[in-house]
Every structure is written in structure tokens, then in C-alpha cells.
Amino acid sequence: MIIWPLHSLKDCGSALCFKSLRTPALLYMAKTGHNARPREVRIYSLNLPIVETANMKRGGCILKALAIVLSLQMEGDRLSVPQNPEDQSQRSSISSAGPRNHDVLVYLVDDTVVRLTVDNLSSVTAQELHRIVSETLQLPEDAQEIFALWLVSPVLELQLKPKHQPYKLCRQWQDLLFRFTSCSADDILEDEPSLQFRRDIFFPKRKEVQIQDEDVLRLLFEEAKYNILEGRYPWDLSDCEELGALICRINLGPFDPKQHTACFLKERLDSFLPSHLCRRGHGLLSALWKRGATRLPADEQGLLRAFQRVPEEDSACEDRAALRQLYRAYLQKCHLLPYYGCAFFSGEIDKPAQGLLHRGGRKAVTVAISLEGVYIIDSKEKHVLLGLRFQELSWDHTFPSEEEHILWLEFDGENEGTPVNKLLKVYSKQAELMSSLIEYCIELNSSLEGQDPESAPREAPPSSEARNPPFDRRTHKLQRQNSVICSRIQHLATIDYVEEGKEIKRVKPRRTTSFFGRQLSNAPTSYSAVRAAENLEQG
């Protein structure tokens, strides 16, 4: 049995690259003068299952520090490649600064870097590192429950528990990608996580409205702004223009008609509005977009009008009280979104069939889970396909043999005017994470509801800032049927069934004993039992 890191194979000879559906691996072959081939290959990649393959082809060495174990029975000579202890894997957030000290880079959402020097990094927990970051940023003590440490890459985002050890999770990142993503072998080897300081998804909005510290409000504002501008928080154009006007006021100061013209804002439109809403191109391309778009693109005129409507106080923009009010106004408006402060997961759902000759295929979606519920967001169109509060759904996670991970969501709906139960399948290797988070959020909400009135957190009395928001309270557009945050059940391919699963009956079924046993059982409901039929269609 031979153990070595792959990067130690550099310039040692030719190599055979093994590729399988499970995990990539590499077998080194020495230039011994004969074509020795293994009769049996068993490949262990860290904590992954055993992989056996006989399909081999020549390829270059992959210079990555992923340790593997090879057990070989060969007809020719056996080669042992010694380990090089000086070769170490480099992570984007960790670098060595001495025998026992390490430099740790913690990133804020606005790409600000917090550089720390930590002793015994391999044993430091997320809670200890969180405390060091909070002290470095001079945040108040309650920042421990407001923020959390995350490991983030373009393909996976994980909030760390206080007991987690970030260094060890970084070393296991490729295992996590293999388990929870559908990335290719090359993408897994290239991906590296960064350690980020973000909002804790379990911090309730009712507590956030009580925050007075300017630094905490600024961090929350930067994160909310990032999620709005990146389209992670879908919202209507008019609402995004109001939020963009607040960003203009914070970054540019009070409105100046001589300086803040339409041309001035047009050059910086992406800094204030989501890029998917901004008008692109000129002439014919712009006209074609306007004809084919489902909603009007943003332009500088709407942002300019919203900027002009931002009320001004006596204090200047640099005044800390004025900035605190602007941060709070931005966050209060974002609180209207049901998926504010959520965790994001990637997945796919079935498209509805559009004809006999046109298969539906699949649609890429983002699954947003917060303390309030589960929301399925169209990753391309940036609008909500389905929004369910926990008391409105049942769920389960299945992983049939040799099939995909599926998160099942069950909810009430209609089929040609008849009340039915609907099943939605979300295909994702992160379904296990989603199911666990849903269960934990329900348990957390139940424990908070069971608290004594005296011990339960109370809402702070509304401040003058809350009584006088920067914009006049108009009828919110959240109830508009064409709003991007309204569910679009007609765009979903669901399995509809009623009691016995054979025919649609006129009596509305209940879900107190659901097709799935996992649901919010203590919530009041008016549904009767549903029995799962043996011949229920599974897809």
C-alpha cells in the first residue's frame, strides 16, 4: 500500500489518469521500460467510498494536494514515491506565518479583508475565531448572535456551527463539494473556499429592528445591498429603485440637481440597481430586449426620481445619526421580503410539458430557506416560483438507490378548480442540507413560541426613525399578482393527488397525516387524513 500526495508526482514520469463517475484519482506509473498494468485498482480518496475502475487512459499529473491511497497488485515492479512534508495545500483564507502562528483572512461581504494571526489554527473553533473577528472590528457583544462565520465558494455556502473547526473543514472542502454539489472533477479540484463574516440565518428580524450600533447596521446593510444587487433577493423594479435611491444618498450625499443628473447615474447604474434589471445594449439589441422581456428594464430616470424623493434631515450625510437612519431604512424595507436573511441552495425542478413532442426538461432554481419558510426562486428569471411558510408544507428527503437526491415539498393547491395536494420535486445533492435546515428552523420556532411571555423577547417601541420612514407609506406592491415575489404555481410541474391517489374528489383532503410524515405537526389545520396510494405516480 502506497500513500502520497498528488503534487509530489510532479516531473516523476508518465501518469495514468483514472476517471469515474464517483471521484477523480491518479495512478503514477514509473518509466520502468515495460508497460506494466495493474490487475486490480482500489482507490480511496479521503473519506469517500471505494472506487474501482478498469478504464484507463494517459493524462497529465494533476498538481493538487489531495491525498489518496492506492492498493496495487502489479505484474511488474512496484514504485514508492516518498512524501514531501514541505508541500502544503494553500487555501485562500489560510497562510502560514510561523511554526505555530497562521495568518487567517476573513472576508466581509463588501470584500473588506480582516487579517488575523491565530495560534494553533488547526484546533481553533468557529466560536473562538468569531470572537477574535468581533474584537478586531470593535463590535458589541451581541454581535455573537447577529453574525456567523461561513465557508463560501461559487458552488457551496455553509454556515459554520460554533463547535466547527474552520481549518479542518477547509482541508475537507473537496469532500464536501463531491458530496453536496454536481461539479465536475476539474471544478472540484480548482475550487477554494473563503472564510466570510455574514449574518446568522437564525437571527430573527424582530431582534434586528432593535439594533442601534452603527457598525452592526452598516455590515447588515452591506450584506442586504449585495443580495439585492446580485439578484439573490428578487424584487420589483419600483422597489429596487427606492433601495437604489437610498444607496445613492449614502454614497453620494444629498441630492444635488447640478451634479446628480441622469447621465451621471447612467454611468453607475449597476452600483445602485440589480444588473439583471438594468438596460443593456443600444439600438436594435435594446429594442429586441424590450419586446421580449417579461418586465421593463430599469433606466436612470426612475432611479433619479426616487433619489429626488429621499427626504433630507438637518444633519449632513456624514453625520453618524443620519447614516444610521439610512442604514435602518434600507434594512426595514428589505425586511418586507419573506426570504430576507435566508440560506441559499442550488437545485433543479421539472419544467411543465409543453406538448407531445416537446419534453419539459429541467429548470435551474435557487432554494432559499429562512426562519419563515421555503422559497423556490427561478435562477434565470429572478422571480419566485413557489413560497411556502412552514405551516403550509410537508417535506421529505429521499435518495433512492442509483438515483438523485430529492427534496419533496407537499402543499395545498387546485387542479381545475378542485382542491388537491401537490408534490414538487427539487433535484439537488444539497437536499440533505435543506431538509435538515427546515427541520431545525421548525424546532427553533416552536421553542421560541413555547417561551414564557416574560422571557420571550419583546419588540422595542418604535423609534422616531421607524415612525418616520424615508418614503411615504404607500400600499405595498407585495400583493400584486405580477410581482416577482408572488408564487407562480402554473410554472411548476407538480404531482397532484387526493385521498387514495386515484381520482380527484370534491371533498378537500387533509394533511394531518400527510403523504410525508415530516411537517409542522403543532400548527392548526383544517385538513383530514390523506392516504398515500400504492400507484402514486413518482415523476
TrEMBL record:
Transmembrane segments: none annotated. One of its GO terms (cellular component) is plasma membrane. Residues 102-449 form the FERM domain. It comes from the Eukaryota. InterPro entries: Band_41_domain (IPR019749), FERM/acyl-CoA-bd_prot_sf (IPR014352), FERM_2 (IPR035963), FERM_central (IPR019748), FERM_domain (IPR000299), KRIT1/FRMD8 (IPR051594), KRIT1_FRMD8_FERM_C (IPR057096), PH-like_dom_sf (IPR011993). One of its GO terms (biological process) is negative regulation of canonical Wnt signaling pathway. SMART domains: B41. Residues 449-479 are annotated as: Disordered. PANTHER family: FERM DOMAIN-CONTAINING PROTEIN 8 (PTHR13283:SF10), KREV INTERACTION TRAPPED 1-RELATED (PTHR13283). This is FERM domain-containing protein 8. It comes from Anolis carolinensis. The gene is frmd8.
